[in-house]
Amino acid sequence: MAAEARVSDFGGKAHVALNDPKLRANFRRAMDGLMAKRAAQFDDPAEWTALRARGAAIRARALARLPDLLERLEANLTRNGITVHWAETPAEANAAVLGILRQAGAKRVIKGKSMVTEEIHLNAHLEANGITAVESDLGEYIIQLAGQAPSHIVMPCIHMNKVEIAELFADKIEGQTYTEDVDELCAAARKALRDRFADADAGISGVNFAVAETGTLVLIENEGNGRLSTTLPPLHIAVTGIEKVVERLDDVAPLLSLLPRSATGQIITTYVNMISSPRKAGEKDGPRQVHLVLLDNGRSRVYADVQLADTLRCIRCAACMNHCPVYTRVGGHTYTFTYPGPIGKILTPQLEGLDCAGDQPHASSLCGACAEVCPVQIPIPDLLARLRTEAVRPASPAVRGGGSGRSLADTLGWAGWTAMYSSPRLYGLSSRMMGLFGNLIPAWMPMLKQWTRVRTKPRFAGKSLHQIARERGFSND
Amino acid sequence: MPASGRPHTVYFFGTCLIDMFYPEAGLAGMELLKREGLKVVFPQKQTCCGQPARNNGHQDEARAVARLQLDAFPGDWPIVVPSGSCAGMMKVHYPELFENDPDHARAVAFSERVFELTEFLVDVLGVRLVDRGRPVTVTWHPSCHSQREAGVVEQPKALLRQLANVTLVENPREKECCGFGGTFSVKQPEISAAMVADKVASIEATGASQVVSGDCGCLMNITGAAAKSRKAFTGTHIAEFLLERCHGR
Ligand code: SF4
Asked: Does the reported pTM lie above 0.80?
């Protein structure tokens, strides 16, 4: 695949987003709603604490046995009649999907929501090879019409409001007259999609959990489009990352309780699909062929680092971004790559390299709102700090682009800082100087200039607490 | 901390920000402890917890500065810190910062002695405050690290509620980050500016005349932005606020 090389430009894109009042209002409103819904679900702290500990343990256990579980998954899927394809890179995954479609002579594809197919830019690849893929999840359908990428991993078009969607539909759907009535807009999408379902040669979907013990693909959704995409066409191709495996069917229930409650505040999604085989002899429906494409794309590299491997516990609920004060203000497209928000800030630099997305771990105040709500207890701020360390002092070969954040100014600056704060004498001297002359530092000095754009200049105290403590006779030891 | 009961002596870690910008908040913290009959020791060797370096990926530099603090507080008295953020750094991150280091055991023992000021006043000393101040309406701003790292959530509010003439109004967006984040505020100035603008607006909407916080980083950010945009409310560190109320000033 000839994906254009992309580089993160967080500051530049954030500037644009921050100056777009409509975008900011859309996100603020949507995130406030999602936070309230989630909070209502987890109003019992004891239940929440116990359940997320269980969720984290299930995911950690699966990852601890990942190679073994993947083998068992393949064996059990194969036994069930589902063909497994391994893809190390996006190009291999795209080639695998294209190969399956070509072999079946499929020309028209209907898609259920899948972030991994966004990650590999599958639609563009299929399009370039003469195959049309239509997104059937309403949010994905909307952004496909708009020619955009998802701005959120659960609600792909959350950056748009009703009016924008109404305008888009009137513009892009044949015969559609302008309406802001939500029911009418949904009906219009449903009508347009119905024909696409009917004439699809293949359905492509993602996977929420792949159960190793039984060879089952679990797929949750609210619109029924996932079920239609995976049952109506004669061919179903599921695409997912290798980390989505869980060991046992028993593991699914707690995760199914955590995921929708964290994501949308629903007790459970409207549809829970468990796919365990193609159509069997005598059955009246279901696809004749089912395939699973398992994508690595850097995940096994992440897996090789004990600390960073926690990233792979993620169940893609999006709670971290819903609660992120940065995401809420800059929106999903600021993150350039497929996964926005806190999970994106730790995952993207690992998948793409710190040399390409090294600014993302820094675009955080480390407030920790993400880790507080993560249903599988990923210590996101610690991983952000770890990636910041890899950027200046590379220690792990698992992280690509390590050291790319080094600069002379940064190194010297922190060397000076360390010299000052690790010597009581030097510190005492500097703080006395600051007390005397600090307030004369002009506001145009580099860091102060940024600070004073929206804030007054901080004032150095005439006497430090050290001095005051001495004068007031507070004992030194 | 001594195994049981009330200590007679405590260490005070003033924090670098308070040292240079808000010494009166630090002094108030020490006075509050003294009023409870404790001997307060302020080691002159202390500097900074090392968090700025740690948060910027400079672990070695952070460790060098942290090691000085291990040296500066050699006794086994509790270390009281008038900042949830620095307390969080010392409680949570010192052990991991010194992993595989000869000083690891010392760092762990140190971290176990660290208390955020209000946590210490409420959980260890069980202070009872008598309000001598005039009626005032305030709102509380918790720093992110005080709530989420130091685990200090209820204690400061419990102290404010002890004050008969203080009306504490809740800010519905209380838990949201003010956008300070140390170097974040100058490395991501525009995002930080948007965050602090929202924080200031949410505080203004409570109608409180003062925002009280346990962290001077947040206060520098919030009051700096409030003053620049000519808002009517002021900000005070909780130690200073409590002491003033007790003195009736
Ligand atoms: S990191 Fe945690 S909160 Fe964020 S999407 Fe993944 S599971 Fe959900």
From this structure: yes
A160 within ligand 1 shell (Cβ under 6 A): no
A209 DSSP β-pair partners: A218
Across the beta sheet with B210-213, the strand order is B166-169, B136-141, B210-213, B234-237
- For chain B, give percent helix, strand, coil, nearest 5: 50, 10, 35
- Portion of chain A with pLDDT greater than 90, in percent: 94
- Confirm or reject: Cβ of A263 under 6 Å from ligand 1: no
Tokens 């109608």 identify what position? Answer: B207
- A432 at the B interface (CB within 8 A)? no
Q: What is the pLDDT of residue B123?
A: 97
- Domain coordinates in residue numbering, chain A: 39-297, 317-392, 409-471
3-class DSSP state for residue A2? coil
Q: How far is B60 from chain A (nearest CA, A)?
A: 9
A323 HSE (CA, 13 A, CB side)? 27
Task: Please tell me if the CB atom of residue A138 comes closer than 6 angstroms to any atom of ligand 1.
Answer: no
Strands A271-275 and B234-237: unpaired
Interval B8-20 mean pLDDT:
97
Which CATH number fits the domain A39-297, given the four candidates 3.50.50.60, 3.40.50.10420, 3.40.50.2000, 3.40.309.10? 3.40.50.10420
B residues 59-98 closer than 8 Å to A (CB): 59-61, 64-65, 67-68, 72, 74-75
Q: pLDDT tens-digit profile of A280-293?
A: 999 999 999 999 99
Of residues B45, B61, B194, nearest to A329 (C-beta): B194
Spatial separation of the C-alpha atoms in residues A451 and A449, rounded to whole Å: 5
Domains for chain B: give ranges and CATH numbers: 9-124 (no CATH), 136-247 (3.40.50.11810)
In the predicted model, what is the mean pLDDT of residues B23-40?
97
| Chain A: closest CA distance from residue B226 (Å) | 7
User: How much distance in Å is there from the Cα of A313 to the middle of ligand 1?
Assistant: 8
Which of A368, A421, A453 minimises the CB distance to B65?
A421
Mean pLDDT of chain A: 95
C-beta A463 within 6 A of ligand 1: no
- Per-residue pLDDT band for B249 (boundaries 50, 70, 90) equals low
